[in-house]
Design goal:
Number of helices: 4
Strand order of the largest sheet: 1-2-4-3
Oligomer: single chain
Strand content: 15-25%
Distance between the termini: 25 Å
Largest sheet: 4 strands, mixed
Shape: globular
Length: 122
Amino acid sequence: MRKSYRVKTESDFQRVFKSGNSVANRAFVIYKIDKAENSHFRVGISVGKKVGHTAVVRNRLKRYIRAVLTEYKPAIEAQIDFLVIARPYTRNFGMAEVKKNLLHALFLANIIEEIPDEVEED
């Protein structure tokens, strides 16, 4: 995922965090804010030390999240900024579990219209 698709600055993170709407499932919290001037969505990913004490664990989880978002990029609406915050429950997740739970959270947040069929069957 290119850097133009990422919420990078602290002020952008705080704006989405403070004024965005949030939804959550057991694994992820999603904060979403509409931005009409965006030509494509932007995402910020946060995986704290409560999720994994080593950088290896946290970075692996961030890679999995970015891979899912890249795969479903066409299904994500364009004029939004959103944050994906991983909860400690995700500590030992593999790629399939991250995909299933993240797509469920994105659906709850109305970022994607429907959960793809191949994920629901897992």
